[in-house]
Design brief:
By secondary structure, chain A is an alpha+beta fold. Chain A contains 11 helices and 9 strands. In chain A, a hairpin with a 2-residue loop joins strand 2 and strand 3. In chain A, about 55% of the residues are buried. Chain B has 3 domains: about 90 residues, no CATH class; about 120 residues, Butyryl-CoA Dehydrogenase, subunit A, domain 2 (Beta Barrel), CATH 2.40.110.10; about 120 residues. The chains are: A alpha+beta, B alpha+beta. At the A-B interface, helix 7, strand 9, helix 8, helix 9 and helix 11 of A face helix 8, helix 9, helix 10 and helix 12 of B.
């Protein structure tokens, strides 16, 4: 396994960073986070048309570019760095991955091209209780009706659930937990936007009352689909965290060089310098964790369960610590609304919980190690 | 290990496969388990394979660390012993190759590789720890020799060593960094007294070394007179790399070193390898880190695996240990075999974190049994040893705080902490806890 990005991947990183510096500046983020939709449709379209970001890692036969997970990680890292306000994680990483993992060729043919070209915004609705991230927490039901199904139940923390046009829903059918596609305009679906701690990422609560749905894959498939999708999503989220944590580090170091107190830049005081040194070590280690997990997923090794749990736990902690220390190093200015530090702090504490807390992932990791996995 | 010079690589060793083929050819031609250990080490040294990452003209083959790793992997497969792994090869040789005269390289480096000389490091003093440049040991010129008076401390392996990397003050009228010289110092002489220093584990791996009118030829200065600080930096950088990255560039089995144990070099290679393999205990790169596997087995046997705290601690230990390795692999991939970097301090600091984490994991698992030591204690006392040893890596080779300064200043570019003693002539400084006389 190589532990470095190739030239093409570095080029991709540069062009995504350039694009986001222009289209997702601090001013853009602040404008969009106050809107109901939470994204700029024009930028969303440019992402698809100019850079092909939505379809980057989706299969070529369904409108994507067929790149691998490493390229996907590079893009997510840059999006995390810029706190991009867009339904990318929900549409591409959650819904797109779930469709790919479903193995349902017909559904992929119908649904993936829209996700790949950005014309469809999709999301994955599976969470019902905010303390249960897996299949075990699901009690929504799906009943056969004609040649389709109808869904009843409630979902929460559905990322971009209020703006998505396609909603993939996990519900229990006769044959077990299954994945369904629901048109967001279908009768019986009520959507309520939730107020979120991280204003740069929107979420909704959805109520399904006899909503018409299309089965993806076969009944009972959702257990495996969700497990695989959430592992990939956890590493995707870890990459976002790494990008954002790196930005926190840079902001803290720049400020420590600039801010003078007691006649010296505060970065010359060991109290501040040592915080920055620890932050660098944690950010570099978080990169190792996220990249190693991404390489394991890309190569399909049997380390995937172990290293994804490791990466989500460590990167969540590292980002939370970096964002917290960024406010502390900035002092009073870091606690103001005008400074961006709180935007990263909000993202950090929110993604720390999303898809399972560090402690939950460590418990999973320990279970795997006790069962003899891991080297 | 690398010396910041552009490697001039011989064309036939341009790929890992080519290196492996060359190592196998060399072994076919030169290696035999019946050879006396001495003869084998001489052949290995003169072939350039003992330290292939060193420059071709100085006992190496100028290989990048990736290619050298391929060579060591072949030696590992063949279970072939290599040169001594101690401070001579890790610190003294790279320093002398970088700063010494050609005569000094001939005089000292070859004997390190063949195990004829063992080296120790005479740097730290009671009054000069983190602020090493405030060292007080004096070396005063007397004819063609310097006369050395003073005291060193925390000297690993002082008793078995033939030579020391000695930092001593040769000018007290200039600021502290500018009056230090770096000597290759003969240990076996009347003016040198070595006293073992008992540490908190109860062992005595270190010693105090006292100099009373000891002597060293002026010709043994490595680098320039009063230029010892820059020379010492090369030694310290190599030390951080060795302590942090877990030196992967090495033979599976190392020869012993030292003039006092030369009779061991008469035994056959095969005899030596078998003896070492039998006595080998598994130790981590920190020397005291227990394997997580051992702890997991213990947890299972004692019904500790459902305890949520135990599970968290197991996961944390696994995480940090792997991140240390992965950070090293990433740094290596990024540097493409380039020179030493201040980023080595990240590895050194991470090793301290790993060691502390392993202590907490071990204690959480064994719980009250962590109150015991020796044969009554869990895992034959190794948990107790781990607990007692843990403070050491955060201090030796530059404390965690010194590493954070280096990372802050040299990696992140933060301004230096003003050192009020920096420009003051040494003779006017207060040093350590005592007034300089």
């Amino acid at each position: 396994m190589s532990m470095a990005f190739n030239e093409e991947q570095e080029e991709l990183r540069k062009s995504v960073r350039r694009f986001l510096e222009q289209k997702s500046s601090s001013a853009d983020v602040r404008k969009l986070m106050e809107t109901e939709e939470g994204y700029d449709p024009a930028v969303w379209q440019q992402m698809a048309e100019q850079l092909g970001l939505q379809g980057l890692a989706l299969p070529e036969e369904h409108g994507g570019s067929g790149y691998g997970f490493i390229e996907q990680i590079v893009v997510l890292e840059e999006m995390g760095r810029a706190l991009l306000c867009a339904p990318y994680f929900s549409s591409v990483v959650l819904a797109g991955t779930a469709l790919v993992e479903s193995g349902d060729e017909a559904a992929q043919k119908d649904l993936l091209p829209g996700i790949a070209d950005g014309s469809t915004i999709a999301t994955l609705a599976w969470i019902e209780s905010p303390s249960s991230w897996g299949i075990e927490g699901i009690s929504a039901t799906a009943k056969r009706a004609g040649d389709g199904y109808t869904i009843d139940g409630t979902k929460t923390l559905v990322l971009d659930g209020h703006t998505a046009s396609l909603i993939l829903v996990v519900a229990n059918a006769d044959g077990g937990p299954s994945l369904f596609a629901v048109d967001a305009s279908a009768d019986g679906l009520t959507r309520r936007k939730l107020e979120t701690l991280d204003m740069t990422r929107k979420a909704a609560a959805l109520e399904f009352s006899g909503v018409k749905a299309r089965l993806i894959g076969s009944e009972g498939d959702a257990t495996g689909i969700l497990e695989r999708t959430l592992r990939i999503a956890a590493v995707g989220l870890a990459a976002e965290q790494v990008g954002a944590a790196q930005k926190c580090l840079e902001a803290s170091v720049d400020y420590a060089k600039l801010r003078v107190q007691f006649g010296r830049p505060i970065g010359s005081f060991q109290a501040i310098k040592h915080k920055c040194a620890d932050m660098l070590l944690e950010v570099e280690s978080a990169k190792s964790a996220a990249y190693y997990a991404a390489w394991a997923i890309a190569d399909g090794t049997d380390e995937v369960p172990v290293v994804t749990a490791l990466a989500k736990a460590y990167c969540s902690d590292a980002f939370a610590s970096a964002a917290t220390e960024t406010i502390q190093i900035h002092g009073g200015i870091g606690f103001t609304w005008e400074h961006d530090a709180h935007l990263y702090y909000r993202r950090a504490k929110s993604t720390e919980q999303f898809l399972g807390s560090p402690a939950e992932h460590r418990d999973v990791l320990a279970g795997l190690l006790l069962a003899g996995q891991g080297s | 290990m690398s010396f910041g010079t552009v490697a001039t690589m011989t064309d036939d060793l341009a790929t890992p496969d080519a290196v492996r083929t060359a190592v196998r050819a060399f072994l076919d031609e030169s290696f035999d388990r019946d050879l006396p250990l001495r003869t084998w080490l001489e052949r290995l040294t003169d072939s350039g394979w003992a330290s292939p990452q060193w420059p071709t003209q100085w006992f190496g083959k100028s290989l990048s660390s990736d290619l050298a790793a391929a060579a060591f992997d072949e030696f590992r497969k063949a279970r072939v012993p290599g040169p001594p792994a101690g401070l001579g090869r890790m610190l003294a040789a790279p320093t002398i190759i970088a700063h010494g005269s050609d005569e000094q390289k001939q005089q000292f480096v070859r004997r390190i590789l063949t195990g004829e000389d063992a080296w120790c490091q005479l740097f730290s003093e009671p009054g000069a720890g983190s602020d090493l440049a405030s060292l007080q040991t004096r070396a005063e010129l007397d004819g063609s020799e310097y006369v050395v008076n003073g005291q060193k401390v925390w000297t690993s392996g002082a008793l078995g060593s033939d030579l020391g990397m000695l930092l001593a003050r040769t000018d007290v009228d200039v600021p502290k960094h500018r009056g230090i010289s770096y000597f290759a110092f003969e240990m076996d002489q009347p003016g040198v007294e070595v006293r073992p220093l008992k540490q908190i584990t109860g062992d005595a791996q270190f010693a105090e070394v006292f100099f009373t009118d000891a002597r060293v030829p002026a010709a043994n200065i490595i680098g320039e007179l009063n230029g010892g600080w820059g020379v010492a930096m090369t030694t310290l950088m190599n030390e951080r790399v060795g302590l942090g990255a877990g030196a992967s560039l090495n033979f599976p089995i190392s020869a012993p070193a030292g003039r006092r144990i030369q009779e061991q070099f008469e035994q056959s290679v095969g005899e030596y390898v078998d003896k070492v393999s039998k006595n080998r205990t598994i130790v981590g790169s920190a020397g005291r880190n227990m394997g997580l596997g051992q702890l997991i087995d213990y947890a299972k046997k004692h019904g500790r695996t459902d305890d949520p705290n135990v599970r968290q601690q197991i996961a944390k230990a696994y995480t940090l240990t792997n991140l240390l390795t992965w950070n090293g692999l990433r740094a290596k991939a990024a540097s493409k075999g380039g020179g030493l970097s201040p980023a080595a301090s990240l590895g050194k600091l991470m090793m301290s974190n790993v060691t502390r984490q392993n202590r907490e994991t071990a204690l959480t698992i064994v719980a009250g049994a962590g109150m015991l030591a020796g044969p009554d204690a869990p895992l034959g006392g190794s948990v107790a040893t781990q607990v007692l040893f843990t403070p050491a890596p955060a201090i030796y080779g530059g404390s965690d705080q010194v590493q954070r300064n280096i990372i802050g200043e040299r990696v992140l570019g933060l301004p230096k902490d003003p050192d009020i003693s920096r420009d003051v002539p040494f003779r006017d400084l207060k040093v350590g806890t005592q007034k300089n006389s």
